[in-house]
């Protein structure tokens, strides 16, 4: 045996060991995370953008209702979205997503909000505030209010009560002063969305442009009402047509269970490949682990939101990712049976299998893209991981597996065809 | 030489099996229909953690005011969760009042309200429509791609095999009255992609083997090609079933909704790509050849 050949054998062996160690290292950093000084590197599960079904949150689709004299316009939808954003901001929650759907719908997603029903209440209310005189004339509306707060105030009986303070604009101040002058001794109704929330009797003309709304349940309710008034009325009536909320504990539970189920699924696939394809199976398993690593990195880098259906899509592509390897390995076996040497069979197997893999994956990609462009919400989340999975798996199965198989053969550690399951 | 599996030779058997399954599926769809969930017909589902075992009658009593026909079921490992489903899409106020009642009776925190799903009935029809459009668009695009890379008749055979798979998945949902919600649509479209993937692998081999066979020896061509790709078809479906099966066995309901139809679709898709698609192509080709021969004579 020549020295050169021994060298190339050792080199291939070393390279293979290095690659294995590298995969193990990257895998460890990625999934467990390490701390270098003050920097935390890796731990991909902390960096993934999880969907509401995994973190808990509120998802609501509002539909604008048109009336004969009040059509829904694009401007109204835009302005309603702005108002909703302001209202949610007062809840102090992180990053709500507000998107327009079709011509007359708004989708609002709020992650990890503690009181979900309160949030829902806040989002959809029209919040049309009106001061109505005893004769039924509208004195002023929420538009004339520049500021509003929910505070505790001591009333005439000495009791602390929650009230909502209002500060009017210049024009509002004038209107309110005129009205209170006119209606002294009479009651003014304060209406929110046509519901009377308070009807105080006017004692003196109020000229300083300030007023309070009494008769509020508690300070929390007062705060909410104040923020509704501050945010202003929605320019159009919105009706929730789809509401989905997930509590934080349920979300976390779903995530844990799905990861557990996914691990078992991956484990079963790894074992199957090992039993059925032996030496080649080891390579396929390495390729599958590389696939998962690359997939996770891309998922994080593209900031794709991972949802429950997305996890289902990922697991499905893991099943399919080994498909390309199965096609290639079966082809290699066929070529070897024709009497070709191992390396020639491998070469022929890869090149002949390529068109099969391409054609079969393109058809699945077509389904994925149609799902992405024509689907909505959860369906899109599924489509994204499906598409990503197919693309990455084609790369790992064809390019990476080939290099690894050739390396393994070149080490000449395993010479029997049985080792390669041939 | 290994013996070929007789796909084209005994196509009558395989077609018969499929026709029987399709007849049962369509029959059940007509008689039993589908058990549509709230995604399609609208309604509300509220899940609450009560932290204690409970009587459904107690829960029902609390709900009566809002909907007397509401369904109450247990959930959770210790059966301490209540799932309330109504066919009415309850308003925010109604849901709040409902939860307050439970909160009072069982002394609950806000976070014990595990999930709410409310869908208005109008959305369902829209979703079914857009799903149909998606399916048709996907099938047409696949047909174009297959015609471009193979030939139209391959595409036609593949699409018939696809429709076969979709009918069987729907049939399973109808026979076992499994609730149909939006994940089924995504799953059906994925089955479209997956099943055609299987079929293409077989067709690819037919395309490759074609020069080796006589011009009109379609049956041997098909049987040889199917036999050569058989191991791959079974192994691939098996690995995918392993992964999806684990999700179904250990996953949460939202994921199971995806996994179940996928499992049925993968099994049916494997059957149709091995036994139906190529045999169909063979029959079409033989028919075309005999017609051409007849014209010549």
UniProtKB/TrEMBL annotation, chain A:
Main location class: membrane
Alphabetical list of InterPro entries matching this protein: SecD, SecD/SecF_arch_bac, SecD/SecF_CS, SecD_1st, SecD_SecF_C, SecD_SecF_C_bact, SecDF_P1_head
Coiled coil: none
Record-annotated membrane-spanning stretches: 259-277, 282-302, 308-329, 350-374, 380-400
Domain Protein export membrane protein SecD/SecF C-terminal, first and last residues per copy: 241-409
Protein translocase subunit SecDF P1 domain ranges (all copies): 78-134
Keyword Cell membrane part of the UniProt annotation: yes
Signal peptide bounds: none
Keywords in alphabetical order: Cell membrane, Membrane, Protein transport, Translocation, Transmembrane, Transmembrane helix, Transport
Compartments, as annotated in UniProt: Cell membrane
Sequence ranges assigned to domain SecDF P1 head subdomain in this UniProt record: 137-236
Recorded topology in the membrane: Multi-pass membrane protein
Gene3D superfamilies: 3.30.1360.200, 3.30.70.3400, Multidrug efflux transporter AcrB transmembrane domain
Similarity comment: Belongs to the SecD/SecF family. SecD subfamily.
Purpose of the protein: Part of the Sec protein translocase complex. Interacts with the SecYEG preprotein conducting channel. SecDF uses the proton motive force (PMF) to complete protein translocation after the ATP-dependent function of SecA.
Quaternary structure and interacting proteins, as annotated: Forms a complex with SecF. Part of the essential Sec protein translocation apparatus which comprises SecA, SecYEG and auxiliary proteins SecDF. Other proteins may also be involved.
PANTHER family noted in UniProt: PROTEIN TRANSLOCASE SUBUNIT SECD, PROTEIN-EXPORT MEMBRANE PROTEIN SEC
Protein name from the UniProt record: Protein translocase subunit SecD
Gene name in the database record: secD
């Amino acid at each position: 045996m020549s020295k050169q050949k021994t060298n190339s054998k050792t080199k291939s062996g070393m390279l293979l060991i290095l690659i294995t160690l590298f995969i193990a290292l990257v895998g460890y950093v990625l999934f467990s995370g390490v701390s270098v000084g003050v920097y935390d590197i890796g731990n991909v599960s902390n960096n993934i953008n999880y969907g509401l079904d995994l973190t808990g949150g509120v998802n609501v689709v509002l539909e604008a209702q048109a009336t004969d004299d009040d059509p829904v316009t694009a401007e109204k939808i835009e302005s309603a979205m702005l108002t909703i954003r302001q209202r949610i901001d007062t809840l102090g929650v992180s990053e709500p997503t507000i998107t327009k759907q079709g011509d007359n719908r708004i989708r609002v997603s709020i992650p990890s909000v503690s009181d979900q029903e309160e949030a829902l209440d806040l989002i959809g209310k029209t919040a049309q505030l009106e001061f109505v005189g005893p004769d039924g004339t509208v004195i002023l509306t929420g538009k004339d209010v520049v500021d509003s707060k929910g505070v505790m105030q001591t009333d005439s009986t000495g009791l602390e009560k929650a009230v909502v303070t209002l500060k009017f604009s210049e024009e509002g101040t004038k209107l309110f002063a005129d009205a209170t002058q006119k209606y002294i001794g009479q009651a003014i109704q304060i209406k929110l969305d046509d519901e009377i929330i308070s009807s105080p009797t006017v004692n003196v003309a109020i000229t300083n442009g300030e007023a309070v709304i009494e008769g509020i349940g508690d300070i929390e309710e007062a705060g909410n009402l104040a923020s509704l008034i501050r945010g202003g009325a929605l320019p159009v009536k919105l009706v929730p047509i789809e509401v989905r909320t997930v509590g934080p504990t349920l979300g976390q539970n779903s995530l844990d269970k799905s990861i557990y189920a996914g691990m078992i699924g991956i484990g079963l696939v790894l074992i199957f490949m090992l039993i059925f394809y032996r030496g080649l199976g080891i390579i396929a398993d390495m390729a599958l682990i590389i696939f998962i690593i690359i997939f996770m990195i891309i998922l994080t880098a593209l900031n794709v939101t991972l949802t429950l259906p997305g996890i289902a899509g990922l697991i499905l592509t893991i099943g399919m990712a080994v498909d390309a390897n199965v096609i290639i390995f079966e082809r290699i076996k066929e070529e070897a049976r024709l009497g070709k040497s191992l390396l020639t069979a491998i070469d022929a197997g890869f090149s002949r299998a390529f068109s099969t893999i391409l054609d079969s994956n393109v058809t699945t990609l077509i389904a994925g893209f149609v799902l992405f462009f024509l689907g909505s919400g959860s369906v899109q989340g599924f489509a994204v991981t499906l598409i990503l999975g197919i693309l990455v798996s084609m790369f790992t199965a064809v390019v990476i597996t080939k290099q690894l198989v050739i390396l393994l053969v070149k080490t000449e550690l395993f010479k029997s065809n049985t080792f390669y399951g041939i | 030489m290994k013996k070929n599996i007789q796909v084209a030779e005994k196509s009558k058997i395989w077609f018969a099996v499929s026709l029987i399954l399709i007849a049962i599926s369509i029959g059940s769809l007509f008689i039993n229909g589908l058990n549509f969930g709230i995604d399609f017909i609208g309604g509300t589902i509220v899940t609450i953690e009560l932290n204690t075992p409970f009587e459904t009658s107690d829960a029902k009593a609390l709900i009566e005011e809002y909907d007397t026909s509401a369904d109450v079921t247990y959930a959770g490992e210790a059966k301490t969760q209540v799932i309330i489903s109504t066919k009415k899409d309850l308003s925010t106020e109604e849901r709040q009042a409902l939860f307050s009642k439970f909160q009072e009776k069982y002394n609950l925190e806000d976070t014990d309200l595990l999930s709410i799903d409310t869908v208005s009935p109008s959305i369902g029809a829209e979703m079914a429509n857009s799903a149909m459009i998606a399916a048709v668009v996907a099938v047409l695009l696949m047909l174009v791609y297959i015609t471009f890379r193979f030939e139209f008749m391959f595409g036609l055979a593949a699409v018939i095999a696809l429709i076969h798979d979709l009918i069987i998945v729907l049939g399973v949902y109808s026979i076992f009255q499994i609730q149909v919600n939006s994940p089924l649509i995504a799953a059906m479209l994925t089955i479209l992609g997956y099943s055609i993937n299987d079929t293409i692998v077989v067709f690819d081999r037919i395309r490759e083997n074609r020069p080796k066979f006589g011009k009109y020896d379609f049956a041997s061509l098909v049987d040889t090609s199917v036999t050569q790709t058989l191991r791959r078809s079974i192994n691939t479906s098996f690995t995918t079933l392993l992964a999806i099966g684990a999700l179904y066995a250990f996953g949460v309901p939202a994921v199971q909704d995806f996994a179940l139809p996928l499992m049925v679709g993968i099994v049916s898709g494997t059957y149709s790509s091995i036994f139906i698609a190529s045999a169909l192509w063979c029959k079409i080709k033989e028919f075309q050849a005999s017609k051409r021969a007849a014209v010549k004579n």
